[in-house]
UniProtKB/TrEMBL annotation:
Matches recorded under InterPro entries: CRISPR-assoc_prot_Cse2, Cse2_sf
Pfam families reported for this sequence: CRISPR_Cse2
UniProt-recorded name of the protein: Type I-E CRISPR-associated protein Cse2/CasB
Source organism of this protein record: Bifidobacterium catulorum
Domain of life of the native organism: Bacteria
Length: 206
């Protein structure tokens, strides 16, 4: 039976599962100059799938489904969980491309220091008087009615994070995965953008 309502338990388990997948890739990619051939190929596959073509399930199946957690419902029973996991890994692949350091934050960090998506967006341009482009994309993400539209705006924001020069902007991909899952349920969607707004507008360490 397809899940119809947001589940915090599923969101939590999904966040841990995807985070483990991402850190496995990150350790391989940043552990040696240029990454292992397998990690480079995996990131390329995931980026390709985010670029708008129809999902190539047989191409990315191993990256996504290998080790699917027993604490999660079967992927066919919870399409929102599957979309969130797939999208989080694809966004990470875009974020990590050609970076010699890990862009996924170690979630052992104190809660106040976790780089949620809202906080990461603030670091693109910390001066709010000059951040119209960032704020505009965040507003667009909230305004679009479909999940794919939100993801397009998130991808654009991550591309901006990649282009800020010497500043390193990381993301807590565990929390981002949970956000991607939650925003697919109408009764819980607005809470995601509320958190992003609070984190974006709160004073943070740079």
């Amino acid at each position: 039976m397809t899940r119809r309502f947001f589940s915090r338990d599923v969101a939590k388990a999904l966040g841990y599962f995807v985070n483990g997948k991402i850190f496995g890739l990150q350790n391989e990619y940043t552990g040696r100059d240029g990454g292992t051939p397998a990690s480079r190929a995996a990131l390329a596959r995931l980026r390709r799938d985010l670029d708008g073509s129809a999902p190539a399930w047989m191409l990315i199946g191993g990256d996504l489904f290998d080790g699917w957690s027993q604490s999660l419902p079967p992927a066919e029973d919870d399409p929102a969980a599957l979309r969130a996991a797939k999208t989080a890994m694809e966004l990470y692949a875009v974020h990590q491309q050609s970076k010699g350091y890990g862009v996924a934050q170690d979630t052992g960090s104190a809660r106040a220091d976790r780089m949620t998506f809202g906080r990461a967006c603030r670091l693109i341009q910390p001066d709010l008087e000059h951040a119209n482009g960032v704020i505009g994309k965040l507003k667009s993400a909230e305004a679009v009615p479909d999940f794919e539209g939100v993801v397009r705006n998130m991808r654009a924001l991550i591309m901006l994070m990649r282009s800020v020069g010497e500043r390193r902007i990381t993301i807590d991909y565990r929390s981002l995965t949970q956000d991607l899952y939650q925003m697919q349920f109408p009764e819980a969607r607005s809470d995601v953008f509320l958190r992003w707004s609070m984190d974006y507008h709160s004073k943070i360490k740079q």
